[in-house]
Amino acid sequence: MGDDRRDDDARHDDGGFRRPLARDRLSRRLADPVFVVDADAWHLAVGTVAVNHIASRKVEAFYWTAILFSNTLGTALGDWLAGSGPGYEGGALVFAALLLAIAAAYFFTTISHTLLFWAAFILARPLGARLGDLLTKPVASGGLNLSRIESSLTIAVFIVGCILVLPQRAVRHPGEA
After folding, report:
1. Cα–Cα distance between 140 and 88 in angstroms, integer?
2. Contact predicate 143/137, CB 8 Å
3. Alpha-carbon distance values, 160 to 154, 156, 163 (Å)
4. Is 153 helix (H, G, I), strand (E, B) or coil?
5. pLDDT reported for residue 161
6. DSSP letter string over 16-76?
7. Torsions phi, psi of 18, nearest 5?
8. What angle do CA 123, 128, 131 make, to 5 degrees?
9. What is the pLDDT of residue 104?
10. Burial code of 130-163, b = ≥16 C-beta within 10 A, e = fewer?
11. Rounded CA gap, 69 and 35, in Å?
12. CB neighbours of 10 closer than 8 A, spacing ≥ 6?
């Protein structure tokens, strides 16, 4: 691509690589309707889009299609926000706040838990990407400049800490004796 492109048509990352924003917009435009069509077809076929009981190949096919396009949707959403300027910390805070709002809705409203699950699933991907960027990108770019090993160890310590600190409980699935 030539250098005559306008700056708002491309996003620059730390390596000087120019990635067209149009690809992010296209991903989002394609992922949105495909995710919705898949969820609608799944609901029409089996009566629910709940993920707590996936027991047939048909439901599993709908599930993995939803996973694929919700990941694409989450990635496109994260890329869009990254190009909007809040930085790694700001982007992580936006997605963390949205996830906290979803958690509050889970406990304090009658909004469908299945809908809240899918909303949280979509938002978790860009949150993880922004936190990963925060750990690994150079300080001049708003990151902490940790190496891959240092960032992996940081994440591992966090995960182990959560496992040790947060209470765990066995969950019974509907229909189990």
Report:
1. 12
2. yes
3. 10, 6, 5
4. helix
5. 94
6. --EEEHHHHHHHHHHHHHHHHHHHHHHHHHHS---SS---SHHHHHHHHHHHHHHHHHHHH
7. -100, 120
8. 125
9. 96
10. bbebbbbbeeeeebbebeeeebeeeeeeeeeeee
11. 6
12. 1, 18, 19, 20, 21
Mean pLDDT for back-to-back runs of 10 residues, the chain (177 residues): 37 37 46 72 81 82 84 75 74 89 94 87 83 85 88 93 86 62
Residue written as tokens 């996003």?
11
Whole-number pLDDT of residue 132: 83
Candidates 39, 129, 118; CA nearest to 91 is: 129
**By the 8 A CB rule, do 103 and 51 touch?**
no
Cα gap 22→120, rounded to integer Å: 25
19: phi then psi, degrees, rounded to nearest 5: -115, 125
The answer for residues whose C-beta is within 8 angstroms of residue 129's C-beta and 6 or more apart is 75, 78
Could you give the C-alpha distances from 28 to 9, 11, 21, 82, 126, in angstroms and in order? 16, 16, 11, 14, 13
| Crossing angle of the two packed helices 87-108 and 113-136, in degrees rounded to 10 | 160
The C-alpha angle 154, 129, 29, rounded to 5 degrees, equals 170
Six-digit token pair at 101? 């709002």
